[in-house]
Amino acid sequence: MDATLAAQRTTIRDAVSEVTTEVLAESLATARAVSATAAQWLTERVHLGEPAFSAERNSWWRMPWALTLSGHRDVAAGILAWADRVALTDDGDLRPGPYRVDEVRTPVYQLTHLALAAHLTDRYDLSSRLYAKVLDFWNHNEGGAFVYRDQRDGETDWLMTAQVGLVAIAVGDNTVRDQTFDWFRQMWQWQTDLDSLKLVTGRNERGLNAQQPADLPFNINVVDFTQPRQMYFQPGAAAAFLAQHAAQAGSQEAIDIARGLMWLNIDGTLAQLTDETSVHVCKFPWGAAELCALDTQFDWAPYLVLLNDWFRDRQDSDGSWAPSAFTLAGPAEDVDRMWKTAEHLMEVEKIAAALSARLASAR
């Protein structure tokens, strides 16, 4: 690339090009190859349903959903059966010890991933139990998934709320589905600094909460898309829910909010893609994939191709991915790579499905 042209490309919007049918087909082939090597890396770390490192810590909770999407239902079903027997309580919580990710924060994020996998593998008994436990941590008055088990300050979490909404859509709980939409719509309406590409994702009983949580080394409650090493994944997760809500409920407003959120990534710094220490842009293409067939006012396909190449380039030769280096105390180990590889496998599968649908629509 010409050095002058490269220097002019400062945002993700600057980095995309128009795509042809041939480009889409090539990108789909890339996604399938990337997915296959990632799935192989993960399945090699499962023995009779038990994931590697399970006695050490829970790095497996994302695996069943990702492996189901990548066509490895048998392995996913095995992990779920093992988890049901060993790692879950009778009421659907994670057991204390190496299975419980956090004693203070709620298990909503982990349980919703497991619930989606259980639903997709026809373990409706398990998905129902997991979802019932998730709703123990749901704000039934205002919507939103509580951050802490003790519900301190009424704090609710952006990512977890999106995940609960996705499960609600899957299981047909329209009450929680619509509460989730109302929660995100209100969060969008409350924003005051979008022109500066700043998004506040924290919320408590007083409204928007931009304060850094005392128990985290970074501020997950604010994203400044002009700066490096930010929580760039926040819009994509919300957009994925909003797109699915629109598909099920017929809400154009949900598409409009999702597009507005995703444009923060698009108009944000190119460091989202080029910073070798960060992979936090990973959920952006998930949102783009969910929007691709629904949003008639914006073409998401070029962004799917761009981010698909990003996943390919960031994948290690063995098929795994590492978490953002700036969040780790040292080099990534396999126990770190397991949850990140499962996450990225899900996202690549979402890209592949959207590319395949786009190709079919173009012919």
Keywords:
globular, mainly alpha, 5% strand, 363 residues, disordered N terminus, two-stranded antiparallel sheet, single chain
Quick overview of this protein structure:
This protein is mainly α and 363 residues long.
How is this structure best described in words?
This protein is mainly alpha-helical and 363 residues long. The protein has one domain (10-50, 146-362). The chain is built from 15 helices and eight strands. The chain has helices at 3-8, 12-15, 21-43, 63-69, 73-87, 108-120, 124-135, 158-171, 174-190, 234-249, 252-266, 271-274, 284-291, 301-314, 334-362, and strands spanning 46-47, 50-51, 145-146, 156-157, 198-200, 203-204, 207-208, 222-224. It has a two-stranded antiparallel sheet with strand order 1-2. Helix 7 crosses helix 8 and helix 8 (158-171) runs antiparallel to helix 9. It starts with a helix and ends with a helix. Mean pLDDT is 96; it is low at 1-7.
